[in-house]
Write a structure and sequence with these properties.
It contains four helices and seven strands, in the order αββββββαβαα. By secondary structure, it is α+β, with helices and mostly antiparallel strands. It has a domain of 99 residues: Immunoglobulin-like (Sandwich). The strands form two sheets. It has a four-stranded antiparallel sheet, with no helix packed on it. A three-stranded mixed sheet has the order 4-1-7, with no helix packed on it. Strand 2 and strand 3 form a beta hairpin. The longest helix has 19 residues.
């Protein structure tokens, strides 16, 4: 009997898999600044917790977000003492929906017009009004 338990303990280990899908598929994925590949994809990971995720696909707005890989109940203390030697696979699934970029949905003239209007608005915010008095300088006291 002890030999059987030793065999199970040696061969068993938990596998953690991250499964990432997107709509549309084919988006390039980075997790914590490490390129994983294109969706749909599966990748192994070491630790549960917080992750920064970036997805990019031509014709769509880049999606930068924050996701959490939650620890399953059977891998939390004290249950992890019993389940650690068992060959259990845990899959964390994340799905993302990408938004089409304006470049791919608007006519060239409309896109240029909106871009020019936004630039004019920003310029107005940083430039003083034309009728504003010029700033005066006063000499520093001696």
């Amino acid at each position: 009997m002890p030999l059987a338990l030793l065999a199970v303990a040696i061969t068993g280990c938990s596998r953690r898999t991250l499964e990432i899908t997107s709509e549309p598929s084919g988006a390039l994925v980075w997790v914590n600044d490490v390129e994983l590949g294109r969706t749909p994809l599966k990748a192994s990971f070491q630790h549960y917790g917080e992750y920064d995720v970036l997805l990019r696909k031509d014709g769509f707005e880049p999606l930068r977000t924050h996701k959490t890989a939650y620890t399953p109940l059977h891998q939390r203390p004290p249950l992890d003492l019993v389940t650690a030697p068992l060959p259990i696979e845990n899959t964390t699934s994340w799905h993302f929906t990408l938004e089409p970029s304006k470049e791919s949905t608007l006519a060239k003239e409309q896109l240029e017009s909106e871009l020019t209007a936004r630039a004019d608005e920003l310029r107005k915010q940083i430039e003083p009004p034309a009728d504003a008095p010029a700033p005066t300088t006063t000499p520093a006291p001696k």
